[in-house]
């Protein structure tokens, strides 16, 4: 972002890029600001680095000193966390559930938003407000009855059940966000498509959906983070089913009172944190862009 | 605009202005084709069916269950009116949990918003007071790093900080004793009822400041630079500019942040469960959601748990309503931009 801001200066024909003239006050303010931001950055990074470092230690090393580097950088803890503590299979379950739910919710959400944004029919507003209501209700209220809805359908403690519930709860946000997107697309395009003989289905999949790509990408990122983060839904309706990552992590931490293996716990946390962090650093530009897009509407 | 819409809607327009051309009306009577019927069934019917079944229906049922004494396992459920609600409001533990939630709803949004506003201002307008308005050098680095916690699952955050607060091998006490504060050698941050709640709040703030910082940065960048420059020419200092220009202009963003953080504070289940699953020393970090979960899935009192859910939902609605009203009364005139 900084590079973007300074580009016009660089292109100037008359001046070499120069450091801006700074007053004494600026220097003080700059120093104070940098200090404040650096402190916050340390508060954010130190716990992460410490967790990562501790994931290579043995339990006795962890208790000996919180700062000392591990004696040996061995992957034992990771092996233990991945296979014995079941973090590996939970990781795969999470990937499957989140990926499938994400695809379904994106398709269904886009469809629903498209219909609500571009067609007026009796009840369309009511449906839209019903969707909005889902954003404000605390998810907690629904958990008890949802347990029985899934039980009656035979989907309790199964991954498909989890996927369907994820889709249901991610729908309102998706529809809400994409609604304004489809609303803003020009009507001439739909007309042109209709004149060319495209039916409703074709118009949506071949014309409208590709045009909504930037919006879809933003929503997908947010839905991914939200679903990957999901904890309450799996522990309520999937307690005895194949566990997802956050659930397994909590269960593993819960057992720690009996079998103290802090090194493996740190490794489990690292396995949860690092992949998403890497993906974030790669895509951070798009993500930061999507935050501004999502909020400027 | 309306005529245009109805033309495109191809027969489904509800509103057609009186002045609409006759051909529009003709189109409205066009028979429904298979293309159209299947389109509506799949595009609207399918998402709506999933949403109604897995989201709305459970919410509606919860209100019903809250009026019964259903245990969740037995087939018999008797209608007992508002008895569950009476039980909740005379239950000291639940009231304690509600008090904790109120504490959270007051402090969490304020701390998070102030901190993220300050950081956002520093990276956007903290730079030189001469020439173009600009942020600090390398500000994008700070922004990228601050966002890290938002990408980490809440459970992982809870576990991580649980270890950091650990009395004997934790990072925090290690740092504090390293700095010479020997009284913190074995201090249990989460085990002492005076510090458990504050320590927990800090963890939640840690998790969200980066997100709201990015949100506010986006808001501030949306403000036309001329406004800042005009203020500068008029002699306004940095603080004055922040108070008189930045904050009023990103008011909607702040309100959104307040509502989101408040709803989170009324739930807070994940953090509390990960940091102190038992509710903390002397129930000092117990929240309504934990009590609901315990009542429903451990004690098997589904009716009572549903009533707790309803109380939680009403608390959320009251909170959102309050934020709206306060914002209106203090001069915010636009709708919230969620």
Looking at this protein, list some descriptive labels.
A: 297 residues, mainly alpha, 0% strand, disordered N terminus, B: 338 residues, 67% helix, globular
Task: Tell me what the structure shows.
The complex is a heterodimer of chains A (297) and B (338). Chain A has 297 residues and is mainly alpha-helical. In chain A, 78% of the residues lie in helices and 0% in strands. Chain A has helices at residues 2-11, 24-54, 59-64, 76-84, 87-118, 124-136, 139-153, 159-184, 187-195, 200-211, 213-229, 232-237, 245-255, 262-296. Chain A is globular and about 75 Å long. Chain A starts with a helix and ends with a helix. Mean pLDDT of chain A is 83; it is low at 1-12. With 338 residues, chain B is mostly helical. In chain B, helix 14 (288-298) packs antiparallel against helix 15 (302-329). Chain B starts with a helix and ends in a 9-residue tail after the last helix. Classes of the chains: A mainly alpha (297), B mainly alpha (338). At the A-B interface, helix 1, helix 2, helix 3, helix 5 and helix 6 of A face helix 1, helix 3, helix 5, helix 6 and helix 7 of B.
Please summarize what this structure is.
The complex is a heterodimer of chains A (297) and B (338). Chain A is built from 14 helices and no strands.
Mean pLDDT of chain B: 83
**Any low-confidence stretches of chain B, pLDDT <50, length ≥5?**
1-26, 334-338
Average pLDDT of chain A works out at 83
Assembly category: heterodimer
Alpha carbon gap, first and last residue of chain B: 25 Å
Number of β-strand runs of chain B? 0
Question: Structural class of the secondary elements of chain A?
Answer: mainly alpha
Radius of gyration of chain B: 26 Å
Structural class category of chain B? mainly alpha
Poorly predicted parts of chain A = 1-12
């Amino acid at each position: 972002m900084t590079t973007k801001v300074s580009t016009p200066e660089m292109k100037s024909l008359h001046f070499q890029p120069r450091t801006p003239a700074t007053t004494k006050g600026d220097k003080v303010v700059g120093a104070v600001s940098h200090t404040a931001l650096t402190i916050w950055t340390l508060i954010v990074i130190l716990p992460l680095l410490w967790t990562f470092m501790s994931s290579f230690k043995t339990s006795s090393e962890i208790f000996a000193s919180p700062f000392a580097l591990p004696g040996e950088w061995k992957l034992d803890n990771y092996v233990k966390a991945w296979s014995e503590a079941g973090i590996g299979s939970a990781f795969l379950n999470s990937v499957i559930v989140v990926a499938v739910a994400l695809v379904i919710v994106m398709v269904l959400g886009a469809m629903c938003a498209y219909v609500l944004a571009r067609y007026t029919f009796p009840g369309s507003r009511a449906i839209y407000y019903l969707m909005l209501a889902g954003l404000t209700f605390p998810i907690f209220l629904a958990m008890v009855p949802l347990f029985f809805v899934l039980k009656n359908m035979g989907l309790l403690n199964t991954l498909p059940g989890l996927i369907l519930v994820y889709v249901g709860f991610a729908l309102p946000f998706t529809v809400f966000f994409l609604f304004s997107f489809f609303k803003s697309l020009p009507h001439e395009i739909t007309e042109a498509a209709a004149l060319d003989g495209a039916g409703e289905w074709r118009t949506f999949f071949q014309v409208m959906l590709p045009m909504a790509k930037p919006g879809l990408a933003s929503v997908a990122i947010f839905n991914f983070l939200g679903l990957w983060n999901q904890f309450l839904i799996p522990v309520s309706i999937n307690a005895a089913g194949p566990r997802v990552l956050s659930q397994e992590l909590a269960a593993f931490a819960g057992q720690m009172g009996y079998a103290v293996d802090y090194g493996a716990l740190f490794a489990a946390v690292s396995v949860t944190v690092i992949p998403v962090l890497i993906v974030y650093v790669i895509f951070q530009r798009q993500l930061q862009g999507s935050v501004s897009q999502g909020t400027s509407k | 605009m309306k005529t245009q819409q109805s033309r495109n809607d191809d027969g489904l327009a509800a509103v057609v202005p009186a002045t609409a051309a006759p051909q529009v009306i003709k189109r409205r009577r066009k028979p429904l084709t298979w293309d159209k019927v299947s389109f509506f069934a799949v595009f609207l019917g399918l998402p709506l069916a999933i949403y109604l079944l897995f989201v709305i229906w459970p919410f509606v049922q919860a209100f019903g269950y809250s009026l019964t004494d259903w245990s969740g396992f037995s087939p018999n459920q008797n209608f007992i009116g508002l008895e569950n609600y009476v039980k909740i409001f005379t239950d000291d533990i639940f009231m304690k949990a509600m008090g904790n939630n109120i504490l959270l709803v007051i402090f969490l949004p304020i701390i998070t918003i102030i901190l993220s506003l300050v950081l956002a201002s520093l990276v956007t307008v903290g730079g030189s007071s001469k020439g173009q308005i600009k942020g600090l050098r390398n500000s994008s680095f700070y922004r990228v790093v601050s966002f890290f916690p938002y990408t980490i699952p809440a459970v992982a955050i809870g576990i991580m900080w649980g270890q950091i607060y650990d009395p004997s091998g934790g990072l925090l006490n290690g740092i504090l004793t390293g700095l010479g504060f020997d009284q913190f050698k074995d201090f249990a941050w989460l085990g002492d009822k005076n510090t458990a709640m504050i320590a927990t709040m800090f963890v939640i703030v840690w998790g969200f400041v980066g997100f709201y910082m990015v949100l506010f940065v986006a808001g501030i960048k949306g403000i036309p630079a001329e406004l800042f420059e005009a203020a500068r020419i008029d002699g306004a200092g940095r603080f004055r500019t922040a108070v008189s220009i930045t904050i009023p202009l990103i008011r909607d963003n702040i309100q959104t942040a307040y509502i989101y953080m408040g709803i989170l504070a009324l739930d807070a289940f994940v953090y509390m469960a990960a940091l102190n699953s038992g509710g903390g020393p002397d129930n000092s970090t117990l929240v309504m959601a934990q009590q609901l979960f315990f009542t429903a899935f451990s004690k098997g009192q589904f009716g009572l748990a549903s009533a707790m859910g309803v109380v939680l939902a009403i608390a959320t609605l009251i909170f959102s309503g309050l934020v709206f009203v306060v914002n209106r009364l203090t001069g915010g005139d636009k709708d919230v931009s969620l």
